[in-house]
């Protein structure tokens, strides 16, 4: 009876239901703040009114060139105005934006263009040769558009014939074009390839609803003030800049473009453009600390950092320089960073070491992420909050991807049990903050068993001869992967490989023990982080291992 | 082909799709900030952990008492902890919260209880007699729950027998109850009665999706910092406190309750509790200005004000006292205030008069409101931006109500043409900011309360001497507006002004009664329609009223 009372004449109507989409932000900001600066690029300033016109021109021109709803339009460009314009112009054509990582090699770019079936490819001139090389192996050549960015290094375009100039394309379009809006908020808006841990990149599909929700999540979780001046340090090809392409636009902010990230250029942007917000990897923060980039007096610059926990020394250094850092956690499949290490008031009373430890945690879910758990991947039972029991980090909510393109098996695996499985291994502390103890790539899967590389490393550190140890996966015909240990020895110590292996076998399950031990100096980043990817490369090649191992042995 | 590419295995799943609901905010805040203060009430402090337990107890107890999904649970209470708890506890039972205006008379409360078919009524002790009187004419008595708020004046409960105590009810419930969550985000969460312009109040139905969107709209449009300390000046029974019941919870803020709004009590809350945000009608701001309520040094208190434009003198006075005021526009059917007079940087250079003029405009849509137009109500064509041509203000978007309960005709009328028609008449200035020139034909806003002129007219027509009655707003220093009645008498009848006023006061809530009654022939159009705009002009001038009133009196 009550059911029927609320069922009468209360169905969604055009007045009260409209597909959620971040596209709506452009119109509102251009309507309300037409003269505010939308984009800064070197000496160029572009208003929101002009930016909307250009986005509409792009959309209109793409439609006139035959782009159909849900066609893919790829972009290979650094953080330029054209890249930002594409984030509105492409979806306004009803198409799906595929921003490609410019650091990939030609084979990977080719794979993405083929797999995503891109109909159009916008290419910044700096990456013309990369695009040309990639296109050689793409059977159906997309329409290629040459972006002659004002600040790009001069260079070749992608094949002088059969290539349109970006500005000429825009000139074909109608600046009053209203766009092709999604009829269903679940329609895709973006396609982002993630370098999977195994095999080919996977195409993460994001919906209009999902990116809308992540945009608003970012606005509320950081939280953004009115009119932020945002510096594009984080590449827009990383999950659409964690949706800040759209979120900063919703906040009627200013996008300050940046082709190359170097401390001097960041410093210049802070001085010249009044930048007050940016996102950056900890390595960028380390660079700012090393160069002593000082925030101009009287201001605070807010920074989101993700990727790995910011080292305590870096955190302290940049804080003293005037940066206010929030540590967040993200993953392409979540469309951005729905998790943050939001501070508790009690932390202010901690000593520096204790505070650094809690700030290194990945944290807790944002108010707009519906679910987060660290659970046993088999049973789905959440781990206890003991700071010790590892489980898999799982997320759930409206800002999670739709799935992997043309890969229903991988999608089903990723969503098994009703949660998105990040593959990251974490523990939960008594206060509910979780901490990643082993990035998914650091999990070695041997004969169906997961091995935590950190666990093996911890054991090896107990050996008196070991200064540093790093354990990675080594391919193995029988077991799939087996652990391979790289060890930096204490001065004067020269144990044999067999001695280390025996030491491990006495102390842990045999399947977890290193099959190979290589004595060598460990490759490190500027901030002292061990570059495991280099070790994985070495472990992937028997020849490389042998090369590295021999000198050590000969020195015995 | 592309369509099919994106159609493979990309359907919504539990991992990436969950019904949007503001209920999710409670769990997240209680999980992440269990020990932060959720509610302050006098000397009482209640943590988020405890608040969640109590909301869950309420939900669990309601379910055990037989409350079914979509049953209506009404609340008649001022801004107390119980009122806030009901905003989570009632929907967590799967039910719909109906917060009733405590300023209504028994007849109106009775109408609401009957029309909304309330199964449960929670009553603050201060309003026990009002509830008892209302219940006399409700055929199916709901379960009545007596809220013995710690700060309520001592008084009777609603019928000592057949009445549960709120705390006893909570004790019946399970503090670990996870709740009955909506399966469809379009499901109703709240029912708010608005004093319609004609006849009986209309029941505005709000959905989980709509209130979620309005909560997030408030968070992004004001925008809210982390952990705001919010003072409940605005009644929660006004459109669920414009959704700040949920928005402040999402921001992990503190709700500071307030039973009665008086400048001294607001001042005390600012001092004692560190309040930094509240919403208030311009009359409240005027009171703060008159009493010179000073914001403690070094702080700024942010205020949203709506209802009528804040007078320039009041705005200037409270700004000097340390308040930072944003002028917004709302309407119950929009679930809150999706429009605001967001400042432009150019305004800082204006002289005080010009700035006051632009600040008095209602403004522009928030980034999360999908559409706003001022258009000809017949043709739907937007009016020119000339600051002169009047049109009807129309809104569109995901935070608009589902419709009016059991009134599909009124719903259809309100949504005609795909827009929600506010009934407010506005002009649009060249900068795109709109300004209301004529409040919804017939609504008088007095001390933040909407009064339907038609309702007052209907009552006056019941007086034997009244032939025609027309009620319009008259400016008032304290209340903003008060009702002024123009009455055309039946031949040979000559009641005194006081008699008419007394007649009204016996029959309806006092705030709705005319302050002035002018006996005169009513100006009419050729078709016999009363020309209210002429009466508003008269009511706007004391001199004109006096001119008109005197002859009538002298004729007595």
CA-CA gap between termini of chain A: 87 Å
The greatest inter-chain interface is formed by: A-B, 77 and 77 residues
Overall residue-averaged pLDDT value of chain A: 90
Helical residue percent of chain A? Answer: 25-40%
Structural class of chain A: alpha/beta
Percent of residues in beta strands of chain A = 15-25%
Overall 3D shape of chain A: globular
Based on the structure, what is the oligomeric state of the protein chains? homodimer
Q: Which regions of chain A contain 5 or more consecutive residues with pLDDT less than 50?
A: 552-556
Radius of gyration of chain A: 25 Å
| Largest sheet geometry of chain A | 9 strands, mixed
- The number of helical runs of chain A is 19
Number of strands of chain A: 26
Question: How would you describe this protein?
Answer:
The structure is a homodimer of 556-residue chains. Chain A contains 19 helices and 26 strands. Chain A is globular, with a radius of gyration of 25 Å. A nine-stranded mixed sheet of chain A has the order 2-1-11-10-12-13-14-15-16, sandwiched between helices. The first copy, chain A, has 556 residues and is α/β, with parallel strands linked by helices. The model of chain A is unreliable at 552-556 (pLDDT under 50). Chains A and B meet through α1, α2, α8, β16 and α15 of A and α1, α2, α8, β16 and α15 of B.
């Amino acid at each position: 009876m009550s059911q029927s009372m609320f069922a009468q004449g209360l169905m969604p109507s055009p007045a009260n239901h409209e597909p959620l989409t971040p596209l709506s932000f452009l119109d509102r900001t251009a309507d309300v703040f037409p003269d505010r600066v939308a984009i800064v690029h070197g000496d160029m300033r572009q208003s929101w009114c002009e930016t909307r016109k250009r986005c509409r021109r792009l959309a209109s021109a793409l439609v006139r060139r035959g782009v159909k709803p849900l066609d893919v339009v790829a972009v290979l460009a650094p953080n330029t105005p054209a890249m930002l314009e594409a984030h509105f112009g492409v979806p306004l054509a009803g198409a799906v934006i595929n921003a490609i990582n410019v650091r990939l090699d030609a084979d990977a770019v080719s794979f993405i263009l083929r797999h995503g079936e891109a109909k159009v490819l916008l290419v910044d001139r700096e990456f013309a040769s990369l695009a040309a090389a990639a296109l050689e192996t793409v059977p159906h050549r997309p329409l290629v558009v040459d972006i002659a960015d004002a600040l790009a290094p001069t260079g070749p375009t992608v094949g002088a014939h059969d290539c349109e100039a970006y500005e000429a394309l825009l000139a074909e379009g109608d600046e009053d074009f209203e766009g092709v809006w999604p009829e269903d908020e679940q329609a895709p808006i973006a396609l982002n390839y993630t370098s999977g841990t195994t095999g080919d990149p996977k195409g993460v599909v994001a919906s209009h609803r999902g990116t809308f929700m992540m945009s608003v999540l970012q606005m509320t979780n950081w939280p953004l003030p009115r009119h932020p001046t945002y510096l594009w340090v984080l590449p827009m090809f990383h999950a659409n800049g964690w949706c800040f392409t759209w979120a900063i636009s919703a906040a009627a902010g200013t996008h300050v473009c940046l082709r190359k990230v170097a401390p001097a250029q960041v410093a210049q942007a802070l001085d010249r453009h009044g930048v007050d917000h940016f996102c950056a990897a900890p390595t960028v923060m380390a660079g700012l600390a090393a160069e002593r980039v000082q925030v101009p007096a009287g201001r605070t610059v807010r920074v989101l950092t993700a990727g790995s926990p910011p080292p305590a020394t870096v955190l302290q250094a940049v804080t003293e320089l005037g940066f206010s850092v929030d540590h967040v956690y993200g993953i392409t499949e979540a469309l951005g960073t729905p998790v943050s290490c939001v501070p508790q008031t009690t932390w202010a009373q901690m000593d520096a070491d204790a505070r650094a430890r809690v700030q290194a945690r990945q944290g807790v879910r944002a108010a707009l992420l519906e679910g987060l758990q660290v659970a046993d991947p088999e049973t789905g039972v959440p781990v206890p909050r003991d700071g010790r029991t590892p489980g898999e980090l799982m997320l759930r909510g409206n800002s999670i991807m739709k799935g992997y393109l043309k890969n229903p098996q991988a999608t089903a695996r990723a969503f098994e049990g009703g949660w998105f499985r990040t593959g990251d291994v974490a523990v939960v502390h008594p206060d509910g903050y979780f901490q990643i103890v082993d990035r998914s790539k650091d999990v070695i899967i041997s004969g169906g068993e997961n091995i935590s590389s950190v666990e093996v490393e911890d054991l090896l550190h107990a050996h008196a001869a070991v200064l540093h140890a790093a354990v990675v996966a080594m391919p193995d015909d029988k077991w799939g992967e087996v652990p391979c240990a790289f060890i930096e020895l204490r001065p004067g110590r020269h144990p044999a490989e067999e001695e280390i292996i025996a030491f491990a076998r006495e102390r842990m399950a045999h399947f977890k023990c290193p099959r190979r031990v290589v004595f060598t100096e460990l490759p490190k980043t500027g901030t002292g982080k061990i570059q495991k990817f280099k070790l994985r490369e070495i472990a992937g090649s028997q020849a490389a291992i042998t090369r590295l191992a021999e000198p050590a042995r000969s020195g015995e």
